[in-house]
Amino acid sequence: MPEGMNIEVAHKLSEQDRADRAKRRWEEIIEILEVLVLAVAAIATAWSGYQAARGDGRQSVLYGESSRDRFEADAAATLGEQRLAADASMFNAWLQARAAGDRELQAMFVRRFTPEYRSAFEAWLKTDPFTDPAAPAGPGYMPEYRSPGLEEAKRLNARASAAFEAGTATRETADRYVRVTVVFALVLFLVAVGQRFRLPGVRMGAMGLAVGLLVYGLVIAATLPRL
Hints:
The chain has one domain (27-223). The protein has 5 helices and no strands. It has helices at 3-100, 103-112, 115-125, 148-194, 200-223. Helix 1 runs antiparallel to helix 2 (103-112), helix 1 packs parallel to helix 5 (200-223) and helix 4 packs antiparallel against helix 5.
């Protein structure tokens, strides 16, 4: 074989060897990148799934607290209304005793008033209700009247509403974590599909899309509240 032909063959073999080494280097780089993306996506998927599960549990707890407070508020309101009804009944009896001029019976009814109603009753008498038509209709209409049961019911209802709203907000946050989990799952799918191709353009395209979705998902997850 002529010497020039040998040199040409050796040159072509050298070029082929360099091309093979470059191809293997490219494959090694893309494989390392795929492993890194898979690792980050897998951790992020587990994290967002964990947050979504915590959100579901937290929502159940908050809704349970809201229901409990509603029941307690209903009980407190019922007790407060019963106490007010009893006071109003004795007040009507006091009016009848006053009309009859029975001071002893009037005093007895006043002693039977609840403490909060008695305070309002005394303030009501100072308005000169029997001569002033603008006076309140009774002690229950006085600003001094405070029913512990009704005020407790108001407080419990407010707390129940706050717990319910917090539970709803937690549910919405958990739903957003679920959506982020879907994004991370799509990243895993794209990387897995990209590994099936040997064409550099297709594989790099799939990897680029996967990296873009991964960054997007990580940014969204970083802005969500921790549950």
